[in-house]
Design brief:
Blueprint: H1 2-10, H2 17-26, H3 28-43, H4 52-65, H5 73-90, H6 92-115, H7 124-145, H8 149-153, H9 156-165, H10 179-191, H11 193-218, H12 221-267, H13 271-276, H14 286-298, H15 310-340, E1 357-362, H16 366-376, E2 387-392, H17 398-404, E3 413-417, H18 423-428, E4 437-440, H19 448-469, E5 478-482, H20 487-495, E6 502-505, H21 506-519, H22 523-531, H23 545-554, E7 557-562, E8 570-571, H24 572-583, E9 586-594, E10 597-602, E11 608-609, E12 618-623, H25 626-633, H26 639-662, H27 680-686, H28 696-699, E13 710-713, H29 720-726, E14 737-741, H30 749-752, E15 758-762, H31 768-773, E16 781-784, H32 797-801, H33 805-817, E17 822-827, H34 853-856, E18 860-862, H35 864-875, H36 879-888, H37 901-904, E19 910-915, H38 925-935, E20 939-945, E21 956-959, E22 971-976, E23 980-984, E24 989-993
Parallel strand pairs: 1-2, 1-4, 2-3, 4-5, 5-6, 13-14, 13-16, 14-15, 16-17, 17-18
Antiparallel strand pairs: 7-12, 8-11, 9-10, 9-12, 19-22, 20-21, 20-22, 23-24
GO cellular component, one term: membrane
Transmembrane segments: 93-115, 121-140, 152-172, 233-254, 311-328
Protein name: BK channel
Length: 997
Amino acid sequence: MDKKRSELKSLSHPFPLKLQKNIRRKNQFKQNQLQKNQQQQNQKGGIQKLYISSIFKQNYYKFYKDNVQNDDLDFIKILKFRIRVEQLLNSKYGGYIELISSLLSLFSSVLYIISTYLDEISWMNQIDVVVMILFGFEYLLKFYVSQHRIHYLFEIWSMIDLACIIPVFFIFTQSTSDQSFQTFLNITRIFRLLRVVRYIQKNYKAGDSEFKGVYKQIKIKQIYYNYIKKRQIYIIFLTILSVVIITAGTLLSFEAPNRLEQIKRNNNFNPLIQKCSTQRINKATFHEMIYFVVVSISTVGYGDVVPYTELGRVTVMFLIIIIIIIIPQQTNELIRLIGLQSVYARTIYKPNSDVPHILICGHVDVSALRFFCNELFHEDHGNQDKNAIILQTSVPNNEMELFLHNQQFEHNLTYLQGNPSQERDLKRAAATKAKACVILINKYSNDSMNSDNRNILMGLAIKKIVNHITRGESNINLCLQLIKPESKIHYLSALNQKSNDQLIVIEEIKMNLLAKSCFCPGIISLIGNLIQSAGKAEIKEMKKDWIQEYIDGTGHEIYRTTLSTAFSSWTLSAIAAKIYKEFQGILFAIEIDIDGQTIIRLNPGSFIVKNTPESNVYVYIICQDKTVADKVSNYSMSTEDVLEFNQKKITHQKKDKAENQSDQKDDLFQFPKQNMFQDFEMIEKDYVLLNEPVSLMQATEYSTNVKNHIVLCGSHPSIYYFILPLRAKYLKEFQHIVILSDHKPTKIWDSISRFPKIIYIHGSPLVKQDLINANIGQADKAVILGQEMASDSNKNQTLDEMLDAESIFIYKAIQKINNKVQIMIELVYPSNIEFLLPKDVSYGKNFKSELTPLYSAGEVYISTIIDTLTCQTYYNPHILTILQQILTGGSISQEKLSNNNEILNLKQSNLWQISVPEDYQNKTFGELFEYLSQQRDLIALGLYRTSGAVDNIHPYTYTNPPENVNIYINIIYILNFYKVKTYFQRQSICIIIQYTQ
């Protein structure tokens, strides 16, 4: 045992190698566990600095204690004490010791600098002794716990500490006249600043390692790059500052005694000789040395201050060498770090007062951005001089890079990498001067509620930051995409103020469109054409009449414009007839202010329009471009009349705005009704509900014999908004809705349990027998809902397009059983429409999804229509209200009723389809439009060409046809405020109009 102990003491390392191997093998698991705990502590901000060697020592103590005799316990106690001291130095108390030591170093160095301007301080040496005793105690502790003590003695920081400590203990033994010792002592006093530098760098690096631990978890590369870039700038600054101060102090230690000797020597000369001297020598000061060092570093020197001693000149030589070596290295590292940072993270958008811009945030993928930009920069919206700023947290992928360099949008798009919730990045994007902020969403997220919450928080943060930057003087309008309808309440409740923000709820619009298509076929393509601008397409290979008509209809959009005073006291029906005849524009809605309320109505029919500047009358027109809308605004008005009318309108609008702002506090919680959920009383008034809810068990059937019904393939969380329009009271007749899904709608059944004629069949739409059980052979309509994404991770385009595979298979399965049923299908990607087309139809390179028979018939819903609608809300803020009234009927109970008779006289129309009257078959659309508007107070929006109407096999929509177009035997889209009774048949549609006063 004695031999074993002697061998143990003779080793430079305190532990035998065999024992170390056993300990490593035995405690590998504990080491891994410790590293995991350290990572968790790093994320929480508390780094516990424990070295693995301490673990070795502890385990060695336990292991050795079990294998030695009692006479070795003294050695074990000594080892245990060293371990405790090391743990103490590595704990927070060791950090306190280092902090106190650094503060004392700073204090003593600053005190020395001050002493150079004063006479000799008698107590300076006593302070040095006290400080150095504390330094010496800390040094001995670190030396005692060091594993390699010889190596520790030759470390650079250890040598600096030792050089600063040793001279102090010779203060009282050396003579004050010993100038060399005094010079060395002064140098060590200024070198104590390096202890402060070491402490700052050590703690700064600890913060960096902590940040890396978090970075590995959250993977925010941009934040990490910003952090290390700032750290490198800080290191360069700290290095230069340390070199300047220490060099200045060293020069002062060498030059000050020499200057004093020269001054004494000159004082002994004859005064006449002193006057003749061209160079006067002054006492050396610290700030003079600082000046000399800075000038020497930055330039070649002015020569007004020069070192007189040889050691001073040598110091300057070393200074220049250090600067030449160290500073370029640090600067190159900074350049390298800046190079690692994306150029998009450094870009700053400089706004132009003459060029408006909007901000685009959220989940921006290329598909959504393409549709959005096509609408934003379309020539139909007039001046194209506008910019879009895309602000994203990540760098653009390859597909986005190609889109950004598209010649069509390259000069109007600016991509910035940054966080929309950070003030600095919003300033880079000039958010305070943006006309609007568009926040897009991942429409097929598997966690839609989380995506909604993320967009809501982002929108609230942007509004708050913009309001803070402008000090409440301005606010930014949001165009916010949401998935769940209930998320509207969350946003409005959190906003807690009046706002003109546009909330585009994807599932609500989608479900309403699919539901409306069940009794108004083709409405998907009709709405899509109205909200999407289209240029003059040239189709060379497909010279079919139906395509030319359909393309002509796609060139019409909805425009909002003022109404000329020439139409004052006219009925809206008469105005619509006149505008169509003069400009081939269809006026279908009116917006008017009555008693401070903005009322929008679809075709109020015989309502007499009193067009004055106070009434703020606007009309909505379907026409080809904005120039047509401007002609309606200035019809039969001279230039002077237009200017006078507009000036009065502007004055009245400013007055109304001031009154609204004064009443804002009273109306703080009165949000627009169209942006809130309909309450239960409203639903009972406008929709048909059962007195008692039906349980899911009662509604479940193995098979059904119902006919002329709607088969809904799949269960969706927002199915409530699909059924709701199909149970509106104005429909009179209701079709059965058969839900065919292999997942029981347990969670959503409570919301639909009071709707009549709902049947659930457990099965898969992919299985033929299950489709037969749903009686698909005698169904009137089939609706196929899209599939959700598996995750939110960015996948490549090829994998994403496979999301439509199941929907396509269901479509083919239904067609195989019943090829006459009309199928509405939801697709994620427009290109997948090609898989639904017959084999004999081929488009080749000219394939465009919007020109296919299925899309023109309104049988395909594509989510990109939401992005186009989002852009339209920027140009036309009331487009959402118009769309909602078209889809849901816009009943009076949806709005706040007033006792004003003028409001009550404003009738509300619904969108219907009727067959062309026999007297107007084979006549022109212009003749039919005049008849319907002048004699029936109906507004025709377009035609639904049935199969064989021209040279078409499938039906298609024809929006706003020219007045000379023959209508044949077709179906017409009309806005009618009478009650209509509809009967649905499997092969044809027969709609009877019942006039009720």
